[in-house]
Structures are given as C-alpha cells and as structure tokens.
Automatic annotation (TrEMBL):
EC number: 3.5.4.2
Active site: 207 (proton donor)
UniProt keyword annotations, A-Z: Hydrolase, Metal-binding, Nucleotide metabolism, Zinc
Cited InterPro entries: A_deaminase_dom, ADE, Ado/ade_deaminase
CDD domains the record matches: ADA (cd01320)
Cofactor detail note: Binds 1 zinc ion per subunit.
Name used for this protein in its record: Adenine deaminase
Amino-acid positions noted as binding substrate in the UniProt annotation, renumbered to this chain: 286
GO molecular function terms noted in the UniProt entry: hydrolase activity
Function: Catalyzes the hydrolytic deamination of adenine to hypoxanthine. Plays an important role in the purine salvage pathway and in nitrogen catabolism.
Keyword DNA-binding included in the entry's annotation: no
C-alpha cells in the first residue's frame, strides 16, 4: 500500500470517511447549548444566560479552569436517567455521522452525585444510550468513570464505592478536571484499588500540568493511556519512553487551542509527536464547547499542519484502534477494515 500516491486534494474526504475510534470525549462536554436550555426548562433549573446565543457567546475561554467553571454549570441541568440517556444518544448519532466505529466515553459522576442525582440515574442513563447505539447504529461504545482531581481522594473512594454495583457498565477509570496543583500522586491509592478490581486506567496529564505529571501518571497510577500528554515534548527522555512502551496519547487539537495550550492550530505539536514515534490519536474532548466533533478536529488539524498527509491519516486512525480497550480479535478486525479502506483509496476507488 503506497499512501504517497493518494492526491492531497482527496485528503479531506478520506479523513471524513475513514473508520476511526474516539478515545477522549467527556459526555458532559457534548451537551449542546440547545439541549442545556431544553433540559433547564424541563427540570426547572435557572440559567444565568437569557438565551442559547448568550450562552454560546460565553464560550470564550482563557485556560482550563475558565472552561471548567462553565462546563460544570452546564452539567447542572442533568437530573434524570432520561436526561443522561438523551445527552449520550445525541453524541452517538454525531459520532456515527463521523464514521466513528468505536468510542470510549468519559463521564464525571461527582458533578452529578454532589447535586443529589443518584449514581444509578447517571450510569443507567448513559448505559441505555450505549446499548441503543450498539443495536440501532452498530456503534461500539464503552464508559470510563472519571474522578475529579480538584476533589479529595476520599471523595474518589466514595464515588468508586457508589459505582461498584454498576461495575459491568463501565470498563475503567480516568482522572480529569483542574490539573495544576492536583498531581497524580493525590490519587495513587484509589487508582491502586481500581487496578486490583481489574479496571482499565487512564489519566489526564501534561495538558496544562508539567511533563512530570505524565511520568507520575505512568509510575504512580499505572495509567495505560495518557489523555492529552502534549507537554511530554518538554522531556526528551519521557518521549523516548512513551514511544518505546507504546503508551498512547489521546490528543485533542481544537480543545488545546480553545484552552490556550497552543496559541493556534498551526503551532500544535501533533506532527512532531508522530515523528517521534508516539502513538498519538485525535479526539474531540468537549465538542460542544470547543467548536467541533471528531471529524472537525481531523479536518482543522490537517488543514493547519502541512506535514500531515495520507500516511498520517492512516497512522492516526490505526493508532485509535491500537490504543482502544477492546478485545484483540475486534481490534484486528477494525484494523483490517481500515487497511482495506486505504487500499481502495490507493487504487483510486
Ligand atoms: N480538557 C479537560 N481537561 C481536564 N478536565 C476536563 N473535563 C472536561 N474536559 C477536560
Ligand atoms: Zn479531557
């Protein structure tokens, strides 16, 4: 398969059509302003914005925390199992349109249980959409429970206890929210417990926090994948290690620009990560807030970085399957389908 033969003008269409997995999407970050308003009205929640337009206009973030303040307020409209199901279903329909064949979805239960929403409403609602996505869309999806790192480890332990009756409905745990001042070591014990339970482990690290947090997520939390991780390039030894151990990074380009991790997409380091041999992937993070879903991320990133071509498109899609938490035979089947898609592209079909 000679990917160099694919004409550049076909790249945009290939990026849209190629099968891919999404490994970094916060389901609360898929809540569009229209749905926020509809749920607020249904549930009698007061919003500090007069209209959908006014809410959208407030999406001008200066850093991660300025986004999180609005993101947690938006999530406050979710109350019933149906609300969680409706939110996840909307995302799955969008993902299907982007030719996503598998998605691993983060959710933040503490944002909801702290408001008195039962854990059962959160997990059963999300799971209902996941099952429906499998049946009606043929889309594979799994849930990953994230602990909020600005809260205590004790709170994380309590959350884990509340979630364990639903253990069959989520595959792993992650760590998100404000990174600065909340290092991985704060959650070493609860991740240790999750490891004993056989849960898959991921953690946000090296988004705003230093490269050391990536090392600590690997060594202290035993994270199998790093969410974001873009600051690894500040530590050449870490880069060598990530590449050698094939630790995947779930990179979110539009998010990184909206949250000022990079000043503009043309300055993003995704091309460099791939050149260094890192298993990087493209993801949407919080698509309703950052200006686009998965294909929007692919399109904008390839448009901004001339070093990315058909070879990188293939590599990124392949990495998304390689880094996913699915059974080996399923992964092989998806990679074979991807190979066949690109073989057709090379043959001009
Ligand atoms: N980009 C991000 N970083 C940390 N926590 C998050 N929660 C939702 N999006 C996040
Ligand atoms: Zn994230």
């Amino acid at each position: 398969m000679n990917l160099e033969t694919i004409p550049r003008q076909e790249l945009a269409s290939i990026l849209r059509r190629m099968p891919k997995a999404e490994l970094h999407i916060h389901i609360e970050g898929s809540l569009e302003p229209e749905l926020i308003f509809a749920l607020a009205q249904k549930n009698g929640v007061d919003l500090p914005y007069p209209s959908v337009e006014a809410l959208r206009a407030a999406y001008a973030f200066t850093d991660l925390q300025s986004f999180l303040d609005i993101y947690y307020a938006g999530a406050g409209v979710l109350q019933t199992e149906e609300d969680f199901s409706a939110m996840a279903w909307s995302y799955l329909v969008r993902a299907k349109a982007d030719n996503v064949v598998h998605t691993e979805i983060f959710f933040d239960p503490q944002t909801h249980t702290a408001r008195g929403v039962p854990m059962a409403a959160v997990i059963n609602g999300l799971d209902r959409a996941v099952q429906r996505g499998r049946e009606e869309l043929g889309l594979s999806a799994s849930l990953i429970l994230c602990f909020l790192r600005h809260l205590s480890e004790e709170d994380a332990f309590e959350t884990l206890e509340q979630a364990l009756p639903f253990r069959d409905k989520f595959i792993g745990v992650g760590l998100d929210s404000g990174e600065r001042g909340n290092p991985p070591e704060k959650f070493a014990a609860v991740f240790g417990r999750c490891r004993e339970l056989g849960l898959r482990l991921v953690a946000h690290a090296g988004e705003e926090g230093p490269a050391q947090y990536i090392r600590d997520a690997l060594d202290l939390l035993h994270a199998e994948r790093i969410d974001h991780g873009v600051r690894c390039l500040e530590d050449p030894e870490l880069v060598t290690r990530l590449a050698a151990e094939r630790v995947a990074l779930t990179v979110c380009p539009l998010s990184n620009v909206k949250l000022a991790v990079f000043p503009e997409l043309a300055r993003h380091n995704l091309g460099r990560l791939l050149t260094e041999g890192i298993v990087a992937t493209i993801n949407s993070d919080d698509p309703a807030y950052f200006g686009g879903y998965l294909n929007d991320n692919y399109a904008a990133t390839f448009a901004a970085l001339p070093e990315l071509g058909a070879r990188e498109a293939y590599l990124l899609a392949r990495n998304s399957f390689e880094a996913s938490f699915v059974a080996d035979d399923t992964r092989k089947k998806w990679i074979a389908a991807l190979d066949s898609f690109f073989a057709d592209c090379c043959a001009g079909r």
